Amino acid sequence: MKPKRIVLASASPRRREILEKFGVRFEIIPSDADENIDENVPCGEYVCALAKKKGAAVKEKLIAAGDDISDALIISCDTVVYFNGMIIGKPENDSVAALTLGMLSDSYHSVYSGMSLIYGDVEMCDYAKTDVKFAEISENDIQRYVKSGEPMGKAGSYAIQGAAAAFVEKIDGDYYNIIGFPLALFCRMIKTLFGISIFDLGEEK
């Protein structure tokens, strides 16, 4: 069993590219869900709550448009960085990005991603955690990286698949989770929900 329609509730080019690696055919419907929720909850619960909100918002869009979603899989995800008791999302400006990178320098932090799958009346959500160790980053390198524009729109103000790879000394967990799409978790959830692998998901329907 596999879905006849797949919807990615995200405009993230990184999430799109990961699914495309496996030949998965999908459409993109970005979520406009309100992302303001209580941060005083465990980080795993936080990212799951946001992922579920995004998926539910796209489900409502499809229903409002009169679409039959009985055989549609809606994939939504949310990623944050957790450091020293703080949840760190996307930077508001260059100053915040520079401050964030300064905090993460020469330290460990954790990347959490919540993954939500909606298929008809079935909803599943889980999260992945990857620990990351940054080397010591000079103020000059921080300013040069921020000036590149890459930190904007990225949880934790960096993109590990980009120039920020130079900051990373060690990771423990799923690399793709740091990019923003916990691939190993997604594969497990697909196996549980449909009894298939991601390669099956990418075959011609």
| Residues in β-strands, percent | 15-25%
* Total beta-strand segments: 7
| Number of helical elements | 7
Shape: elongated
Biggest sheet: strands, sense, closure? 7 strands, mixed
Mean pLDDT: 94
Roughly how many Å is the radius of gyration? 17 Å
- Helix/strand-derived category reads alpha/beta
Oligomer: single chain
Distance between the termini: 11 Å
What string gives the helices and strands in order?
Answer: EHEHEEHEEHEHHH
Helical fraction:
25-40%
Outline the low-pLDDT stretches.
none
Question: Can you put this structure into words, describing what you see?
Answer:
With 205 residues, this protein is an alpha/beta fold. 35% of the residues lie in helices and 25% in strands. It contains seven helices and seven strands, in the order E-H-E-H-E-E-H-E-E-H-E-H-H-H. It has helices spanning 13-21, 43-64, 94-104, 139-147, 175-179, 183-194, 198-201, and strands spanning 5-8, 27-28, 72-83, 86-88, 108-119, 122-134, 168-172. Strands 1, 2, 3, 4, 5, 6 and 7 form a seven-stranded mixed sheet that branches. A hairpin with a 2-residue loop joins strand 3 (72-83) and strand 4 (86-88). Helix 3 runs antiparallel to helix 4. The radius of gyration is 17 Å and the shape is elongated. The chain starts with a strand and ends with a helix.
